[in-house]
Specification:
Elements lengths: L1 H4 L3 H66 L2 H17 L6 H19 L9 H4 L4 H17 L16 H6 L17 H20 L3 E5 L6 E4 L19 H11 L7 E8 L5 E12 L2 E10 L1 H9 L14 E5 L10 H5 L1 H10 L4 H10 L11 H7 L4 E6 L5 E8 L8 E7 H4 L1 H47 L14 H35 L4 H8 L6 E15 L1 H8 L1 H22 L2 E3 L5 E6 L8 H23 L4 E17 L3 E6 L1 H12 L4 E5 H7 L5 E9 L3 E8 H4 L3 H14 L3 H15 L11 H17 L4 H17 L4 H19 L5 H23 L3 H13 L1
Parallel strand pairs: 13-15
Antiparallel strand pairs: 1-2, 1-5, 3-4, 4-5, 6-9, 7-8, 8-9, 10-12, 10-13, 11-12, 13-14, 15-17, 16-17
């Protein structure tokens, strides 16, 4: 809008005429376009919902019919008789002798035929020991019905074809290429099992072919043995309880029948990769087989994916049901994977796989879809509508599909017993809106022609009005440039002529004031730069009266200098000023190096920010490294001036408000919760300790070692977790060396030292003796072991301090209070003085006091963090013990 006001009058007139005309045309066109879009959208959603509903009923009816078939089959006399007799024949085979050459033939079949095909669809090469049939009957059956027949006849009755057939891998892996071969008598096999197999197999094969199943199994109810299957794959004869396929979903559905053997109740196992079928995703249904009142076994069937795909694709006739060139219906399971084939996989396979690669789909998943020619249980549909549909919601709305394309989608959950599936029917937005796009192109062409005509008319009318104004503007521009030789002349007696006369007088006065104003502006700018940052000065000069900036993320460092007041009293004003100047110089140089911005403060409080006036991504990192250098500056000043100053530092990251505050005088201030928290943290920090908030810790925990410190209560904010910078917790190396060296002197007499310590402790406070319930010798060993761990790790406070905090929390339960720590410290120092003797110098004593102070402070801080509920438990424990 500001650019509009910068145009000349002629352009504004042209613009307004054009705007009014085009606005009217645009409103009418938009209303028509919107109405047409709503009509197309409504019709598309109605059609998609209709298709979705029809498909949902077809799938639900299909599974109802399958479960009804299963109930009928479990009660069928043929199935009952076959189950009883195959059970008996199978038991007899358990007594058969298995020749060594049979086992060799079985292993050769696995290694030479089954494993090479299976390894193409799974990760790694299978190991025969994992798949080896172990029971007698399984070895007998797999030799005669799989290994032997495979070696003698390429048209064997096992299911693992050579893969050269033109059908899909899914078909090859789930259907026998010659199921009738199992009708043939097995050479040199006169077992009772084979006699029953010759009787029942043709009828069971006929059931599988007529009902369109992939396979049919008869399972022993007690031991889970697969006593019969139509296709004779590698699970044949094995136990689903203890065999190699005990973790398969066929085993799970058989176990479900065992746990709920209600007559007529059918269990369902959702799609999962099935290794006997070369890793093809398969689905199983199972139900109990009753012989009168007795359960004699379990009937299981493997459903074909082709039947579900045919229903969902209308036998690849999407256009016939009004889904155009991009529409499709597909099923999704609770795991958000497809349960039917994706249309692009069938119609545009190469481009489909390219899209999947661009979306980051794993190459193994793409190769499985190419091999199996299906997306069932492989392709993920992690969309919002899919998640809501499997959660039970029915919706129709615009969304993005599993390929990221904009689509109109209708989704609903399916009512299928034992399955949590949903159906989604969708069509690409670009196809639905094709009529709208054609209308839109026609409208835009018409609008362009109309705009040209309106512009020509607007230019003609604007020229009639603006010619006198252009003469006035040209004259005033010359006057602005200082060319005031000739007065402005406009041959007009209307308002424009009067304006020309007035401008002549104003220009003359204006020229006189310009020089004076320029001088005052320069003086004011110099004064402002002394009080405000440069960017604030620029905004003030541009006329901003209220300057308030909300910085979303910055870091505030608050430091409190301890010991300066006593220094002024002890040494006088001038030495104190020298120390303060040295600190100020060191802090200033450090702030420049780290990009910190010092804020005006008074007394002994130092405040600096990072990321306020200059945005920085690493503001928290800079502030922490700046804090480390501040500690180094104070340490250096102490060494140079023989002082004992200390710093308490708190750091917090968060939003900051900065602005110009107007009172008796202008001032640039920062305020907000972040400032409040940082100041409070510095007040709670120990001497020469850097305390940071959780916001700072989360940003740079991987860049600097930290130690969890304690919870603190911040007024108007609440309870906060804090962390201490590990480098600020570390004792000076010379003190660490003194402690470790002197402790090494008492290690050879550890038992005597510990006994002396506890005797001294109980002398100082006999009331402490009841706190120690166990044998004091054990307690003495624990004491020396704990001291050894602490002293060995003094150089790594990030490891020692957390252990000390845990110990402090435990001691609350033993009845230990804060005042006990002082007694323990006094007893420890007295004991060390007795044992070390003359080597226990004042420097050594200071080092031990520093070590004990750091450890006991961590323990007391941890004890203070225990919630009231935990304290009540500790009190009860103390009362009872």
């Amino acid at each position: 809008m500001s650019k509009l006001f910068q145009l000349n009058v002629k352009s504004k007139l042209i613009f307004m005429l054009l705007l009014v005309s085009l606005l009217a045309v645009g409103i009418v066109g938009y209303l028509g376009w919107r109405s047409f879009q709503n009509t197309l959208t409504g019709d598309a959603f109605n059609h998609l919902t209709s298709v979705r509903t029809v498909k949902a009923k077809q799938i639900e009816a299909y599974f109802d019919s399958i479960q009804t078939q299963m109930v009928m089959l479990t009660e069928n006399e043929l199935i009952v008789q076959a189950m009883v007799r195959f059970n008996r024949g199978f038991r007899l085979l358990e007594r058969e002798f298995i020749a060594q050459e049979w086992d060799i033939a079985i292993e050769e079949y696995y290694e030479n035929q089954y494993f090479p095909e299976l390894s193409q669809n799974i990760v790694g090469m299978p190991d025969f020991d994992t798949y080896r049939p172990v029971n007698q009957a399984a070895r007998y059956l797999q030799y005669h019905y799989i290994a032997k027949e495979t070696s003698n006849n390429t048209e064997s009755n096992n299911t693992h074809s050579d893969g050269n057939d033109s059908d899909s891998m899914a078909s090859d892996a789930t259907q026998s290429s010659n199921g009738e071969a199992n009708l043939a008598a097995i050479d040199q096999d006169d077992s009772e099992y084979t006699r029953w197999h010759e009787k029942y197999h043709p009828q069971l094969l006929n059931i599988v072919d007529n009902f369109g199943y992939d396979d049919l199994y008869l399972l022993n109810m007690q031991n889970g043995h697969i006593v019969y299957s139509v296709r004779k794959r590698t699970e044949f004869g094995t136990s689903l309880i203890s065999g190699p396929y005990r973790e398969s979903h066929l085993a799970k559905v058989a176990l479900a029948v065992q746990e709920n053997p209600t007559k007529g109740f059918i269990q369902v196992a959702d799609f999962e990769p099935y290794r006997p079928a070369l890793g093809v995703p398969t689905m199983f249904l199972a139900g109990p087989i009753y012989n009168g009142p007795h359960i004699v076994g379990v009937l299981a069937i493997q459903l074909p994916t082709q039947s579900i795909d045919t229903l969902m694709t209308d036998n690849d006739s999407w256009g016939a049901i009004g889904l155009g060139t991009t529409g499709e219906s597909y099923l999704v399971g609770a795991d958000l994977r497809m349960r039917s084939v994706a249309r692009p996989l069938l119609t545009e396979q190469d481009s489909f796989f390219e899209r999947l690669r661009s979306l980051g789909t794993q190459s193994q998943s793409i190769e499985l879809m190419r091999t199996f020619n299906t997306s069932t249980f492989i392709q993920t549909v992690n969309t919002e509508l899919a998640r809501e549909a499997v959660a039970g919601q029915t919706q129709a709305q615009r969304s993005n599909n599993y390929l990221g394309d904009a689509v109109l989608t209708a989704a609903q959950p399916l009512r299928i017993s034992g399955l949590n599936w949903a159906i989604l029917t969708e069509q690409a937005v670009r196809e639905v809106y094709q009529p709208l796009y054609r209308q839109q192109r026609t409208f835009l062409i018409t609008l362009a022609l109309l705009t040209l005509a309106i512009v020509l008319l607007a230019i003609f009318l604007a020229n009639l009005f603006t010619n006198p104004l252009e003469t006035l503007v040209a004259s005033t521009q010359a006057a602005q440039a200082g060319e005031l030789v000739n007065p402005i002349v406009v041959h007009s007696n209307d308002e424009i002529g009067q304006l020309a006369t007035n401008v002549n007088g104003l220009v003359e006065q204006l020229q006189k004031q310009v020089a004076l104003v320029d001088e005052k502006v320069k003086a004011n700018e110099a004064i402002l730069h002394n009080f405000f940052p440069s960017h604030v000065v620029e905004r003030l000069l541009q006329g901003e009266e209220l300057i308030v900036d909300n910085i979303p993320q910055a870091t505030v460092l608050s430091a409190q200098i301890r010991g300066f007041s006593s220094l002024s009293v002890d040494r006088g004003t001038q030495p104190a000023i020298d120390v303060l100047k040295a600190i100020a110089v060191g802090f200033g140089e450090a702030s420049n190096r780290h990009g910190m911005e010092r804020q005006p403060t008074v007394d002994e409080h130092y405040l600096a920010t990072c990321g306020v006036t200059v945005p920085r991504i690493d503001h928290a990192k800079r502030a922490v490294e700046f804090a480390e250098e501040l500690l180094a500056v104070v340490k250096r000043v102490n060494a140079q001036h023989n002082t004992e100053l200390g710093l308490r530092i708190g750091i917090h990251s968060g939003p900051v408000t900065a602005g110009v505050v107007v009172g008796d005088r202008f001032a640039y201030k920062l305020w907000g919760e972040t400032m409040h928290i940082a100041t409070h943290l510095s007040g709670k920090a120990g001497i020469n300790l850097v305390l940071v908030s959780e916001a700072v810790y989360d940003r740079i925990e991987n860049l600097h070692p930290f130690v969890e410190y304690r919870h603190i209560d911040v007024e108007d904010v609440g309870r906060m977790k804090t962390w201490a910078l590990a480098s600020s917790l570390r004792m000076p190396q010379e003190q660490i060396s003194l402690v470790q060296t002197t402790f090494a002197q008492v290690l050879p007499i550890a038992e005597e030292t510990a006994q002396l310590f506890y005797n001294r402790l109980f002398e100082l406070d006999p009331d402490l003796r009841p706190l120690f319930k166990e044998d004091m010798r054990d307690q003495q060993r624990k004491l020396m072991a704990t001291l050894h761990v602490v002293i060995s790790g003094l150089a790594n406070p990030e490891k020692i301090i957390p252990a000390a905090r845990d110990l402090g929390r435990k001691h609350v339960a033993y009845g230990v209070r804060d005042e006990h720590y002082d007694l323990v410290g006094a007893a420890l120092l007295w004991t060390l003085g007795q044992e070390i003797g003359e080597d226990f110098t004042p420097d050594v004593q200071d080092a031990w006091e520093e070590m004990y102070s750091r450890v006991s402070s961590a323990m007391k801080a941890a004890a203070a963090d225990i919630e009231p509920e935990e304290l009540s438990i500790s009190d009860e424990y103390e009362r009872q013990t």
